[in-house]
Write a structure and sequence with these properties.
Length: 630
């Protein structure tokens, strides 16, 4: 007990001397605690770097030189003007609780930190204005996470390195975000945010890497993969100026659950094979998904919304396109050019201009596709016969109506059906009779001696014949079509008889490069441009037609040898025009010419009341009465 004063107070002199004797022991305890904190049980040491000099090291490189493998270097906030070489397996990070930035300033220097040792960790650092990479990785098994980069070139460069993790970094306005080059494999690029720059993520000559959950916004290109196979590109969100994802000369990739928007091209594959492209979302782009010279790929479950062209295949074969959804297409949903053996099944296309267009492509399978609210659902064209040899059955529906596509058959009957589309390609002796075509047209390509009778082809694209001979087109209704009611191209010796071609948005009946056709007994009225139009077409017979209420009744350009007689031209704004050719507008004084409303003639036919045709020729024997030849 301390000695007490007479008044009962404590003798503090003795107590204080006892306390002083205890101080050395407490100091030792505190020192031991610090040693335990700075020197973990496994023998690793910790170092502190402070650019203001309040630590043992003012630069990161000094601490790295002092450190051994497994040590941790804590960096205080500040600006560090240095290039660091990590040639030991150390960790760089802020002290716990530090919130101010730790900035490595480039300012003309090339590289922020170069990692040459395996197993390093970099966390919570900022790299600015390096002429080269902020971090250059040349080793394996490193972790780079939660760092910030601005105006570096690129932010992170990985060369010939493996099993590195690059996660949750923020990159702004760097020339490139993350670049994996030259043999780098088994790296994970995960949950990074990349803003601006040229290429957000570049993988070149580096396979078997995983690019997952990253965000790229405002860069010229999102993800660019070249000469790299067996890569995973999963769950990334990209808004890029040109290419969202561009895969070049690569095989066996897994691309799924990515979201690309507001890019010129969503996903573009060139010289690729074995790519699994699944469940991607592409919105507000010019081109959705395109394959060029790419084979044996699968595109499944993807959604493309608001594009100019959604899918494109060029010189690509044996790809599978299935279960995709395409909507709001300004131009074409699916275009296949010079591509063979592809399978298109169970796709949905809605709201747009054109559905599926196939050009010079063969052995493709179209099955169970559903098309809705598309102006032109299907079109197949080829310069060679085999380009029409595709399997397109009636399981393909347009607004609930099937399509009919027939190739290379002789003899057959399609009648009394409601169809969205009919194509006869290299078919002979078919009868198409009393069908209602609701969306596209009746197409004949290189098809001869067929009968097209009493069909209703209205409010779509009418009847179109290309390189087809000797067909009879009789009694069809061609009303309100988007272009011409009937259009013949390079088609000869056909009978165009007693059809109604009215209210079409271009011409009633059009011939281009056609000869020896007969156009007889048709009603051609109220078309938006011309009733009957001939261009580079010779030796056709045009007679007994009623051509009424068109801006131009009959227009003939660069054509000769055509005979025009016994037609009624009534209430057309301009009845006729004949330019750059030599044609006959009457059959002589016995057979006579045509009836022209508004033209005064005396006699059926008349001899002294010629009708001047615009362009300089003349109907010398017009009729005074409508149908005056009967």
């Amino acid at each position: 007990m301390p000695r007490q004063c007479p008044d009962g107070c404590i003798n503090y002199n003795r107590s204080l001397s006892k306390y002083v004797r205890l101080m050395p022991r407490n100091t030792v305890i505190i020192f031991i605690v610090l040693l335990i904190w700075l020197q973990p049980i496994d023998g690793a040491r910790s170092y502190i770097v402070d650019d203001d000099g309040f630590a043992n090291y003012k630069t990161i490189q000094e601490a790295v030189i002092a450190a051994d493998n497994g040590d941790t270097i804590y960096v205080k906030p500040g600006n560090y003007h240095e290039e660091v070489i990590l040639n030991k397996s150390v960790s760089l990070m802020p002290l716990l609780g530090e919130r101010e930035p730790i900035v490595l300033k480039g300012d003309g220097k090339e590289t922020g930190i170069t990692i040459t040792s395996d197993g390093c960790s970099l966390e919570g650092l900022t790299f600015e204005n390096f002429t080269g990479p902020g971090i250059h990785v040349r080793s394996n098994g490193n972790t780079i996470k939660e760092n910030a980069f601005e105006k570096d070139n690129p932010a992170i460069l990985v060369r010939d390195s493996h099993m590195n993790s690059i996660a949750k970094n923020v990159v702004k306005d760097c020339e490139g975000g993350v670049a994996l080059l030259t043999g780098s494999s088994d790296n994970n690029v995960l949950d990074n945010e990349i803003i601006g720059g040229t290429v957000a993520i570049l993988i070149r000559d580096a396979g078997e890497n995983s690019i997952t959950g990253n965000s790229a916004n405002g860069s010229s290109m999102g993800i660019w993969l070249m000469n790299s196979s067996d890569s995973e590109i999963i769950g990334n969100k990209i808004e890029a100026k040109t290419y969202g994802i561009w895969i070049f000369n690569s095989t066996s990739g897994d691309l799924r659950d990515n979201a690309v928007s507001r890019s010129l091209r969503g996903m573009y594959f060139m010289n690729c094979s074995g790519q699994e492209i699944e469940n991607n979302s592409i919105k507000n782009v010019e081109f959705g998904i395109a394959l060029e010279n790419s084979n044996w790929n699968t595109i499944a479950g993807c959604r493309i919304v608001n594009s100019t062209r959604a899918f494109g295949l060029a010189k690509s074969r044996e790809n599978i396109i299935t279960g995709n959804s395409i909507s709001d297409v300004k131009d074409t949903a699916i275009e296949i050019d010079y591509s063979n053996g592809n399978s298109l099944q169970d796709n949905e296309i809605s709201r747009g201009d054109k559905g599926i267009i196939m050009l010079d492509s063969s052995a493709n399978l179209l099955k169970d596709n559903r098309i809705q609210e598309i102006k032109w659902s299907l079109y197949v064209e080829s310069s060679l016969k085999e380009g029409f040899n595709n399997s397109i059955d009636e399981s393909n529906l347009v607004d609930g109506a099937p399509v009919a596509y027939v190739y290379g058959k002789s003899g057959g009957l399609i009648q009394n059906k409601k169809l969205a589309h009919i194509t006869l390609a290299y078919c002979n002796n078919f009868i198409l009779q009393r069908n209602d075509v609701t969306n596209d047209a009746i197409f004949l390509f290189n098809s001869n001696q067929n009968k097209i009778q009493e069909n209703n082809v209205s409010n779509c694209y009418g009847i179109r014949m290309v390189n087809s001979i000797g067909n009879e087109v009789f009694g069809n209704r061609l009303l309100g079509n988007r272009y011409s009611g009937m259009f013949l191209v390079s088609s000869n010796s056909n009978q165009i008889v007693e059809n109604a071609a009215s209210g079409n948005n271009q011409n009633g009946i059009s011939l281009l490069d056609c000869s020896n056709n007969t156009i007889r007994g048709n009603v051609v009225d109220h078309n938006y441009e011309t009733g009957v139009w001939l261009n580079y077409s010779n030796d056709n017979q045009i007679y007994q037609n009623n051509i009424t209420n068109n801006p131009m009744g009959l227009q003939i350009i660069y054509s000769s040898g055509n005979q025009i007689y016994h037609n009624n031209f009534i209430n057309n704004k301009e009845h006729s025009q004949d330019l750059y050719g030599n044609n006959s507008w009457d059959g002589g004084n016995v057979i006579g010419g045509n009836y022209w409303s508004g033209h005064v003639a005396k006699g059926n036919p008349s001899e002294n009341w010629p009708m001047i045709i615009k362009g300089g020729t003349t109907d010398k024997y017009p009729f005074q009465d409508e149908g005056g030849w009967l």
